[in-house]
Specification:
By secondary structure, this protein is mainly β. It has two helices and 21 strands.
């Protein structure tokens, strides 16, 4: 795509607010990016024990335009949830803002409870740079964000960007602390534009999207331990340590019968391509396969954006098969039935593999 539509760094929005440690004055030369690495090991980004919890808003940034593979379901049926892999379709950017200066934009509702105080917020975005076109990786570190009723503000990545060329794809994930912006903007429809992803068709396929993870304090809610972990790992197909990823969260300190949930952001998981799974094991030995009505145990990363197996917030557009973008929240309560001091999350890859980007966990805490 030509530079006239790659306007990530040249919009001329003199009122842009750069929410990053790398802030530059309007008109000044932008500072160098935070650096990129083919693998970013999972580490804890944020944790707290407080009355409150975690919420998130998510959407994919690209969708199906026409079928390419013989026997592929029509795009209209795929949008409604039919099985299909992104490599079976020509993909094109989703655009909801009617702004001629953006080439992709999508919205999602953030449900911060009334009266709650935002204690932390982080925005994640990523996708595939190589499909029918090759997008420049130097644009991975920036997106445009608009709070409910607000104008776009440029957000720059503030940490190492995962960026890996792998099996025909050119995949990345970036993120930034956006706590001040979310404290100001609050609940409602958030818009994210200019996610650096490629359109078109290839055997690997186009995919990409964004997720806003928000921790909040609310005195009327239970005392909970909340934790946000992130990284960028390629999960290969098959069994064994080399084909999976394990994230251990210590210090959970959940009492017997505690409630909990876990959210996952993953890339390039295909609906109907089997083999990927997620299991959680507590230190007491209690082990559960993580799945629900929309995320089967052997196809858990299947291009859905759900909470406990159902949609939980408004999105524009609101495709049920997001063709390579997953942002799901699962019920962890069965794993906590006997209490837990630590939880071990084990991810296994589907037959074509996928990328893992974010894990966030909320559990009831002992008083």
């Amino acid at each position: 795509m030509g530079s006239s539509r790659r306007i990530l760094g040249t919009l001329g929005l003199l009122s842009c607010l750069v929410l990053s440690a790398q802030t530059s004055a309007a008109g000044a030369e932008a500072p160098p990016g935070p650096g990129q690495a083919p693998r970013v090991p999972f580490t804890q980004r944020y944790q707290a024990v407080q009355h409150g919890g975690l919420v998130r808003a998510s959407n994919s940034s690209i969708g199906c335009r026409r079928e390419q593979a013989p026997g592929a379901e029509p795009c209209a049926e795929v949008d409604k949830g039919a099985a299909g892999a992104n490599g079976d379709f020509e993909m094109f950017y989703s655009e909801v803002d009617k702004d001629p200066d953006t080439y992709n934009s999508t919205r999602a509702e953030l449900k911060v409870p009334q009266g709650a105080k935002v204690s932390y917020a982080r925005l994640y975005w990523g996708g595939n740079l190589r499909v029918g076109e090759q997008k420049p990786p130097e644009d991975n570190d920036r997106v445009l964000v608009a709070e409910p009723g607000g104008a776009y503000k440029e957000v720059l990545a503030d940490t190492v960007i995962g960026h890996r060329t792998d099996e025909g794809s050119d995949a990345y994930q970036a993120s930034a602390d956006v706590t001040p912006l979310v404290r100001k903007g609050g609940a409602g429809m958030w818009t994210v534009a200019q996610v650096n992803i490629a359109m078109g068709h290839s055997p690997v396929g186009a995919w990409g999207g964004w997720t806003l993870v928000v921790a909040y304090e609310q005195p009327q809610e239970p005392l909970r331990r909340i934790s946000v972990w992130d990284g960028f790992e390629s999960i290969a197909a098959g069994a064994g340590e080399a084909a999976g990823e394990t994230v251990e969260i210590a210090g959970v300190n959940a009492p017997a019968g505690a409630a909990g949930k876990a959210g996952v952001v993953a890339y390039d998981g295909d609906r109907g391509t089997l083999g990927d799974s997620l299991t959680v094991t507590s230190d007491s030995g209690r082990r559960m396969s993580v799945n629900d009505a929309e995320n089967p145990f052997n196809d858990v990363m299947n291009s859905t954006i759900t909470e406990f197996g159902r949609p939980s917030f408004v999105r524009q557009p609101e495709h049920l098969n997001n063709l390579g973008y997953d942002a799901d929240v699962f019920d962890l309560s069965p794993a906590l039935s006997g209490g837990a001091r630590s939880l071990n999350f084990r991810f296994a890859g589907e037959s074509q593999g996928q990328f893992l980007g974010v894990l966030f966990v909320q559990t009831d805490a002992r008083r």
